[in-house]
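Protein modeling request. Please complete all fields; requests missing the sequence field cannot be processed.
Requester role: graduate student
Desired output: 3D structure, token encoding
Chains: 1
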Amino acid sequence: MAKDGEKSEWKEFVWNPRTREFLGRTASSWGLIILFYIIFYLCLGGLFALTMYIMLQTLDDHKPTWQDRLSTPGLVIRPHHDETFEIVYNIQNTESWDTYAQALDKFLSPYNDSIQAQKNHECTPEQYFLQEDSGDVKNNPKRSCQFNRTILEACSGLQDRYYGYQEGKPCIIIKLNRVIGLMPGKDGQAPSVTCGAKKYKVGKDEWRDDSDKIGEMVYFPSNGTFDLMYYPYYGKKAQVNYSQPLVAVKFLNITVNQDVNIECKIHANNIPTGNERDKFAGRVSFKLRINSNK
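Delivered output (294 residues):
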């Protein structure tokens, strides 16, 4: 009998024929609560849509409203394998250095003079190429300056298709990372790159460098500078054809069969270097080892 009573109470809770209630509520009560939640979620959706609309009105398709930018851009080198900044090869083993030559060919192909002449503009050297907007009128797309591969001369791959690797005089290409709006230089002074032996720790309080192994170096362009006409950079969408300026360094008589630790730095009176928290801030370090069986 007790079980029959409990079953009857459960059935009556689901549907009470006397009060015409379903799950404890009448039809009008269910209608009101459903209507409340419909209006509630419509208001939430509308508030979210309004918030998104207002936020999107503050964004620019060509320039980020907010930038989490570093005060000092980093330097990177080409060629390099994966994320390791080590260039190791054997002069007599063609396969060991041909991959580096191929990587440089692929990297420099957009800098061919014919492509640059077709896509980019001949700018006035030694001055910023400013292309400001006129109020609400956006000056987009913005023009970009030509950086011709021939500027790199002996490291262009045009005079020597192997970039000196086959004779133990390799070329390394250096570029400065892009930062929107950055104008790296003051008072007409263009930023420049220099490379030298990097100090490394060999003991608790002992440091050493490879200055006796690095030998002579030559830069292309000859002064190792990034010309001011390539700045400021306005962003990927605003400057679709932007070509980053490059500096090449050629090592002429580096010591073979030994590791040589090298560091290249950017020099400009408004770009600080020496930030130990970011090893790529204004500099790049790499190891170069040229092996020879002779």
